[in-house]
């Protein structure tokens, strides 16, 4: 029995169980990278005839393979990013489904299909994920060996899987965005605190009010081509060490 036949003979999990597991991800707060890896794992275990899985994400014109089950999927994904087109990239950007039934006879992506064929890939299916956030996504599945291409039944299952996966990914992406926002706000508050401290130092040394102290700090920042918070931190640090903190 060949490699592909053995793969087909494996007992695959119930798709509904996989969908339920994806749904449970919505109730947790796993980091995005963990959710992406779990989606790939479930897709590999659930969709029949699949040998490798990857997820393409497009954010701010930056494209990357965010998770994968094997190096072959990652390598073939990257080939598309370098070229600027390919089934996985086009599916992610358009939200459509792109299927290469036979890599030996594909006219739409002949260069990619030939490269995939050389790696033993016989069929490719890319599903655009309906992401409701500014990140675009695609679920990519690769089949190695065998003669039968991905059929309509497999495509329908991959699309249904992609719909559930997109919700889990969107939830994780929003959580990551909130965490980044919290970090940015914390940094901003720390910057504001040190600037306020520096204003107090300048007010005491230059005998001026808060507005004038801010103007002097801003002027120093521009003259030295340094960020305001950096100049403020230097002023505060010098004052804490008992050194001359301000001379302007």
SSE inventory with pairings:
Blueprint: H1 3-9, H2 15-25, H3 32-46, E1 52-59, E2 62-68, H4 71-83, H5 87-94, E3 97-100, H6 110-118, E4 121-129, E5 136-144, H7 152-206, H8 210-224, H9 228-240
Antiparallel strand pairs: 1-2, 1-5, 3-4, 4-5
Helix pairs in contact: 2-3, 2-7, 3-7, 7-8, 7-9, 8-9
Textual characterization of the structure:
This protein has 248 residues and is α+β, with helices and mostly antiparallel strands. The chain has 2 domains: 3-178, GAF domain (Beta-Lactamase), CATH 3.30.450; 180-240, Winged helix-like DNA-binding domain superfamily/Winged helix DNA-binding domain (Arc Repressor Mutant, subunit A, Orthogonal Bundle). 59% of the residues lie in helices and 15% in strands. The chain has helices at 3-9, 15-25, 32-46, 71-83, 87-94, 110-118, 152-206, 210-224, 228-240; strands at 52-59, 62-68, 97-100, 121-129, 136-144. A hairpin with a 2-residue loop joins strand 1 (52-59) and strand 2 (62-68). The longest helix has 55 residues, at 152-206. It starts with a helix and ends in an 8-residue tail after the last helix. Residues 1-12 have low confidence and may be disordered.
